[in-house]
C-alpha cells in the first residue's frame, strides 16, 4: 500500500502529486492486472490475495480519493449506481428512508424498485424545502438521500441544515449525499455534516467517458467497515485497469472543472440575455444562488433552459454540431440532451408532471472547448429552430460580445 503522505496539500496539488512505494519508483501508479497474489508461505497471506478483496492499483486510487474528498476511507466500485446499491444494503428490511423528489433518474429507479419489493419504505419529498424535510424525519428514518444541485432542474439543497437537524433528532441517521454534479473540486459534503458521500466517477472524476466507476467516501470507521464488507461480498470493487484509468483522469480534474464552469457561466449568461429561462446556480437570479455559494466553491458545468415549446427544443438539440446528443456529463466535450426523452425517461410522465418537470427542458453539459465556438454553435441551432428570429441576430450578437463565424 502506498504510504499516505504526511502533509495535506491543496486539492490541485493532491490530484497530481504521487507518492508510492513501488519497487522501481514508477512515477505513475503501476497497473496490477492480476486477479490473484501468491502467498509468501502457507501462514503468511501478505497484503493482497484476491482482487475482489483488494488490489494495489485500486488501493492507490482509493487513498488518493480519500485525500481529495477529505475522507478517512474511500472505496472504488464499478459505477455510480453500484455505490447506491452498496449503500442501500446497509439498511434492514422495512427501514424508512427519505429521498429527494428530483434525484438522478437511476437513483429514483433503484429506490422505487426496493420500495415496491417491500425492502424499504421510501418517502420522496422536495429536499429544497428544509422545514418540510425536518418535519418528516421520525424515529423510523434510517437514511436521507440528498443531491445538490439536482439535475436537470438545478434545485439546491441546504445540506448543512438538514444534516444538523437530522442528527439532532437521531445521531444514527445516515445522511447520504450524491456529489456527482459538483465533484470534490467544488464541494466537500463531509465538511457539511454528511455521513456518506458518493459520486459517479463516470462523470467529472474520470472526465473522458471511457470508463464507468463510482466512489464511496466516509469518515466513520464503522460505516467504512460495513461498506467494505458489502463490496467484498458482492464483488463490485473497481477493476485494476479501470482504477488505473481513473487515476490518470483524476490528474486533470481541477483544470477541467475550472474551464468547464468558466464556459458554462458564459453560456448561461448568453442564453439568459437572449431571453430564455435558464437554470444555473451561477446566475444571480437563481433562487438559491446564495445558498449554493455558502456550500460550494463554484457553480459547475451543467445548466438547463426552457424554450416553451417541445418541438422547438427538439429542433435545437438536433441542430448543434459541437454539442453531441448524449446522456451523462462531466466529459471534456460538450453535450446536449432533452432529459424527458433521455436521462429521465425512467421517471414516468405522470410523476414528471407532478414534479413540475418541463417537458421542453434542454440540458447542456459543458466541456473544455473554446467558449466562442460553443456559443456560435448554439446560436446557429437557435436560429435554425426558429427559437430566435434572424432579425434578433444583431442584438443577440451584441448581447454576448463575441466574434461569430456564421
Ligand atoms: C450518472 C449519475 C449517477 C449514476 O452513475 P453511473 O456511474 O452512471 O452509474 C448517479 N448520480 C448522478 C447525479 C449522476 O449524474
From TrEMBL:
It catalyses: an S-substituted L-cysteine + H2O = a thiol + pyruvate + NH4(+); L,L-cystathionine + H2O = L-homocysteine + pyruvate + NH4(+). GO terms for biological process: 'de novo' L-methionine biosynthetic process; transsulfuration. The keyword Lyase applies. Pathway: Amino-acid biosynthesis; L-methionine biosynthesis via de novo pathway; L-homocysteine from L-cystathionine: step 1/1. Its EC number is 4.4.1.13. It holds the Pfam family Cys_Met_Meta_PP. Keywords: Amino-acid biosynthesis, Lyase, Methionine biosynthesis, Pyridoxal phosphate. It is an enzyme of class 4 (lyase). GO terms for cellular component: cytoplasm. The modification N6-(pyridoxal phosphate)lysine is found at residue 203. One of its GO terms (molecular function) is pyridoxal phosphate binding. Its cofactor is pyridoxal 5'-phosphate. Belongs to the trans-sulfuration enzymes family. This is Cystathionine beta-lyase. It comes from Candida tenuis (strain ATCC 10573 / BCRC 21748 / CBS 615 / JCM 9827 / NBRC 10315 / NRRL Y-1498 / VKM Y-70) (Yeast).
Amino acid at each position: 500500500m502506498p504510504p499516505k503522505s504526511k502533509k495535506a496539500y491543496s486539492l490541485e496539488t493532491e490530484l497530481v502529486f504521487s507518492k508510492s512505494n513501488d519497487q522501481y519508483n514508477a512515477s505513475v501508479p503501476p497497473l496490477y492486472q492480476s486477479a490473484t497474489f501468491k502467498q509468501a508461505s502457507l501462514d503468511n497471506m501478505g497484503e493482497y490475495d484476491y482482487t475482489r478483496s483488494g488490489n494495489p492499483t485500486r488501493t492507490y486510487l482509493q487513498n488518493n480519493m480519500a485525500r481529495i474528498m477529505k475522507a478517512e476511507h474511500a472505496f472504488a466500485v464499478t459505477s455510480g449506481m453500484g455505490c447506491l446499491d452498496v449503500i442501500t444494503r446497509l439498511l434492514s428490511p422495512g427501514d424508512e428512508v427519505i429521498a429527494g423528489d428530483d434525484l438522478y433518474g437511476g437513483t429514483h429507479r433503484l429506490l422505487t424498485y426496493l420500495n415496491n419489493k417491500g425492502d424499504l419504505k421510501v418517502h420522496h419529498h422536495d429536499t429544497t424545502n428544509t422545514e418540510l424535510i425536518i418535519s418528516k424525519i421520525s424515529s423510523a428514518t434510517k437514511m436521507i438521500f440528498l443531491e445538490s444541485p439536482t439535475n436537470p432542474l438545478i434545485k439546491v439543497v441546504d445540506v448543512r441544515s438538514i444534516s444538523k437537524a437530522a442528527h439532532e433528532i437521531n445521531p444514527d441517521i445516515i445522511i447520504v449525499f450524491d456529489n456527482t454534479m459538483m465533484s470534490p473540486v467544488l464541494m466537500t459534503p463531509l465538511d457539511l455534516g454528511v455521513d456518506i458521500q458518493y459520486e459517479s466517477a463516470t462523470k467529472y472524476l474520470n472526465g473522458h467517458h471511457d470508463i464507468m466507476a463510482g466512489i464511496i467516501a466516509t469518515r466513520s470507521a464503522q460505516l467504512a467497515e460495513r461498506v467494505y464488507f458489502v463490496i467484498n461480498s458482492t464483488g463490485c470493487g473497481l477493476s485494476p485497469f479501470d482504477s488505473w484509468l481513473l487515476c490518470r483522469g483524476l490528474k486533470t480534474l481541477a483544470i477541467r472543472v475550472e474551464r468547464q464552469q468558466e464556459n458554462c457561466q458564459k453560456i448561461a449568461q448568453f442564453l439568459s440575455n437572449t431571453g430564455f429561462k435558464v437554470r444555473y446556480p451561477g446566475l444571480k437570479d437563481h433562487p438559491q444562488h446564495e445558498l449554493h455559494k455558502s456550500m460550494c466553491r463554484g457553480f459547475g458545468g451543467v445548466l438547463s433552459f426552457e424554450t416553451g415549446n417541445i418541438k422547438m427544443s427538439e429542433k435545437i438539440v438536433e441542430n448543434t454540431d459541437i454539442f453531441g446528443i448524449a446522456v451523462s456529463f462531466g466529459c471534456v466535450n460538450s453535450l446536449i440532451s432533452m432529459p424527458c426523452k433521455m436521462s429521465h425517461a425512467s421517471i414516468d410522465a405522470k410523476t414528471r408532471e407532478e414534479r413540475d418537470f418541463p417537458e421542453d427542458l434542454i440540458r447542456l453539459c459543458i466541456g473544455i472547448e473554446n467558449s466562442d465556438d460553443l456559443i456560435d454553435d448554439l446560436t446557429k441551432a437557435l436560429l435554425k429552430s426558429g427559437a430566435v428570429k434572424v432579425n434578433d441576430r444583431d442584438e443577440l450578437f451584441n448581447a454576448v460580445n463575441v466574434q461569430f463565424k456564421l
